[in-house]
Design brief:
The structure holds 2 protein chains of 2 kinds. By secondary structure, chain A is of the alpha/beta class. Chain A is built from 14 helices and 8 strands. In chain B, helix 13 (280-287) links the parallel strand 5 and strand 6. Classes of the chains: A alpha/beta, B alpha/beta.
């Protein structure tokens, strides 16, 4: 068993086990620090491919697979969640939250109203909502979130994010040092597992890989960047692995957006949390002053990426509409793009494989 | 002799204007009284606004459906709503050209048809060039990306109103503040100055239209609405604040009562909006002697606006939208409507690709069924005939027959 496999197993075990109430989250803008500061466990709810007979009674067939599959996990009790925090970042997520509440009556539920613009007024509103969230968690669990506990939670999450960034830097510095699929799964599991376990595992993995780091033999490898929204499985990354594609940068909700920034620990922590959230690399549903793509493209190019795979959940109108503009911007930067609408069915997987193969041939 | 504007337009043929004219004809026909005063007024409203936009008689501001037209009108600009134009294009069968174009430029066919049509129409230069664009983050996800695309394409400024999900005082304050910023944006973008009096006057006119709609909806409890296919808040959205809209609705209410025409049976409530591309389902319902007595989309969901506090009032209006409400509230309101309009059943067209309207449809229909209200959901497309299936006709007939027997 390799060190990476052991790390993955440790995180899988930690994700599945553990005591105490778990608060499930679906979008990276959920106020995780408040959950941790209340002594609770914050765990991202995954939407692994599965049949969705229960969820189909609530959500329509053209809600994205992530929403349907994660709702199915919730309805079947497999997610082991007793509280949830929804973020109405898109139409589907909002309905998903409401339906989860209607169907499974969690002991705690909160719709955290994250603004979609990044103005001063938005920050003011977000701080108000963080206060509301703090009070709601305190009331629901009968705890008091002290300043000290919040400071600790911020520090703990900052540490995890910093470790993930180091691992991310390492994959860019030494392409191929870790498989794309393994890297992605480590990130996903670190969002599911207790923060201390995740930090420890990511840290030791990064150190172990750094020790192995030699002069990279990149002659056969094709550096890639992956953009999009939620990729909950690893098959797309494994496919890239099997074709000597090596992901050196990503712009995903299940990737860099989670760990790109730390919260600045100052006196007004809620203000700092709001600031961090608004500065986080935005998804296509967020509105920012300038186009979000060039900064990612710049980073991808700096890391040597020869092309960008834009992978999105099917039916994500915001992403799919944005893609034509992104591909145009990328073309101007000399960066070829490929759109993949994620489909975990066997046929979908085959189509994606074929598309990636052709794309790799194009950019090699 | 041909009017100057007409020859100018014919010289530079523009399909969207043709759509507008045909749309007006459609309303007129649907009203059932081609020479009625209300039909003439609505024709005038819809065509003159588009004519002004194409001829750039005033600054043109592209808006999404929820953008308060009251502010655009007070700014002396013409609100132009691409989603409505998509519907018009679909009505004419021109949506396919636009859909093909949108596919050509890389838009996935999985995206909402209405927005794909609009993006295709932009690419084909079918639409009047905007001076500025304003969109909202709600209703729906596609807005932000589509408007961003248009803003880049025309190199014109875009203002995005972030509509919060919560509906408390802080959400209202946040939105009202943004509406103030929108006024500043409009003042710069279309080089105008807002004055308090003219905004209050526009708000008064919006209230007049609202009051007439309330009257119309009350009348509909006993009287059938002529032009049910075409008359709806969807098409009226960019005209709130124009005196002509209130005039039209006043006249329509008069005409509905004189002489009143009682609706057929069974009585149906229509969920969300009717499709824009085809009236096949509505016509089938009529042929079966049944009636759509009300549409969820036509409820007056917002409180009267306060002319002395226009921004806070408009913020409340935006936050009150039925489709923006929590799902339990939406279900509750549907049950109220079913009771108020004494409906025998509910009909819904499940528009694929419309996440906002139909994401929770299975749950909503389940809840209605639990309350003893039968429902039928058919697959169709909001703005394209591509999904319309003639086989649905017999399902619909069976549903109506079942309701008739149960009545």
């Amino acid at each position: 068993m390799t060190a990476i496999s052991r790390a993955l197993d440790t995180l899988r075990l930690a994700a599945a086990n553990g005591s105490g109430p778990r608060v499930g989250w679906f979008c990276i803008h959920a106020p995780l620090e408040l959950v941790l500061a209340a002594g609770l466990r914050a765990t991202r709810v995954r939407g692994l491919p599965q049949r969705t007979p229960r969820a189909d009674g609530y959500l329509s067939q053209d809600a994205c697979p992530y929403l349907r599959c994660s709702l199915e996990s919730g309805l079947s009790g497999r997610s082991q969640i007793d509280g949830i925090i929804g973020v109405p970042c898109c139409d589907g997520l909002k309905r998903h939250y409401e339906l989860w509440c209607a169907a499974s009556h969690p002991s705690f539920s909160l719709l955290f109203d994250m603004p979609k613009i990044g103005t001063f007024a938005a920050k003011h509103y977000l701080v108000q909502k963080l206060h509301v969230a703090k009070q709601a968690i305190e009331k629901a669990y009968g705890v008091r979130i002290t300043k000290k506990a919040l400071h600790k939670a911020v520090r703990d999450l900052n540490r995890l994010r910093a470790r993930l960034r180091r691992l991310d830097d390492l994959r860019a510095l030494s392409p191929g040092i870790i498989g794309n699929g393994d890297f992605h799964e480590l990130v996903l599991l670190s969002m599911e597992s207790p923060v201390d376990v995740s930090t420890e595992v990511i840290s030791s993995t990064q150190k172990m890989l750094k020790r192995r780091q030699g002069k990279p033999n990149t002659s056969r490898l094709v550096p890639l960047a992956v953009g999009g929204n939620i990729i909950d499985g690893r098959s797309l990354f494994d496919t890239a692995d099997s074709m000597n594609g090596v992901v050196v940068a990503d712009d995903l909700c299940t990737g860099n957006r989670f760990y790109a920034l730390n919260t600045v620990c100052d006196d007004d922590l809620l203000d700092a949390l709001a600031e961090r959230s608004l500065q986080t690399p935005p998804c296509s549903r967020m509105v920012r002053e300038t186009s979000r793509f060039p900064s990612f493209a710049r980073e991808a190019q700096e890391r040597g990426a020869r092309g960008v795979i834009f992978a999105t959940q099917p039916y994500c109108d915001a992403s799919l509409l944005e893609y034509s503009d992104i591909s145009h911007e990328a073309e101007q930067l000399g960066l070829p793009t490929l759109l993949i609408e994620l489909d975990e069915s066997p046929t979908g997987g085959e189509i994606a494989r074929e598309k990636i193969k052709q794309f790799m041939e194009l950019i090699t | 002799m041909m009017p100057k504007w007409k020859s100018k337009l014919l010289n530079a043929f523009n399909p969207t204007l043709a759509v507008a004219i045909i749309e007006a004809e459609r309303v007129r026909t649907a009203l059932g009284q081609p020479k009625s005063r209300s039909a003439m007024i609505f024709t005038n409203i819809s065509v003159s606004a588009l004519k002004d936009a194409y001829l750039q008689r005033k600054p043109v501001v592209w808006t999404s459906l929820l953008v308060p037209s009251e502010l655009i009108i007070t700014a002396g600009a013409i609100p132009f709503c691409p989603e409505i134009i998509s519907s018009n294009l679909a009505w004419l069968g021109l949506e396919n050209i636009c859909l093909l174009e949108s596919e050509r430029i890389g838009i996935s066919p999985a995206v909402c048809t209405s927005h794909r049509t609009a993006v295709g129409a932009i690419s084909l230069d079918f639409l009047p060039v905007p001076d500025a664009l304003v969109c909202t983050t709600e209703l729906c996800d596609a807005n932000v990306s589509a408007f961003r695309h248009a803003s880049t394409r025309y190199d014109k400024p875009l203002f995005t109103l972030d509509i919060p999900s919560d509906r408390d005082a802080s959400a209202r304050g946040y939105l009202a503040f943004q509406l103030g910023q929108l006024m500043e944006f409009l003042a710069n973008a279309v080089e105008t100055r807002f004055n308090r009096e003219s905004l209050a006057e526009t708000v008064e006119q919006s209230n007049r239209a609202r009051a007439a709609l309330v009257r119309m909806n009350e009348l509909r409890k006993v009287v059938s609405l002529p032009g049910g296919e075409a008359i709806g808040l969807f098409a009226m959205a960019p005209h709130f604040g124009r005196p002509k809209l209130a005039n039209f609705l006043d006249v329509l209410c008069e005409e509905m009562s004189n002489p009143p025409k009682v609706a057929g049976s069974p009585r149906l409530l229509w969920l969300n909006v009717k499709p824009h591309a085809t009236t096949a389902v509505s016509e089938r319902i009529k042929r079966q002697g049944a009636s759509v007595v009300f549409e969820e989309a036509n409820q007056v969901y917002w409180p009267e606006l306060d002319p002395s506090r226009p921004l806070t009032s408009l913020a409340s209006k935006l936050l009150s939208h039925y489709i923006h409400a929590p799902i339990e509230d939406r279900v509750g309101r549907l049950l109220d409507l079913a009771n108020e309009y004494q409906v025998n059943g509910v009909i819904s067209l499940a528009y694929p690709r419309c996440r906002y309207g139909t994401a929770a449809l299975p749950y909503i229909l389940n809840q209605l069924s639990r309350a003893g209200i039968p429902s039928l959901s058919l697959d169709d497309d909001l703005a394209s005939t591509a999904h319309h299936r003639s086989s649905d006709a017999s399902t619909l007939d069976d549903f109506i027959e079942t309701l008739r027997r149960a009545a």
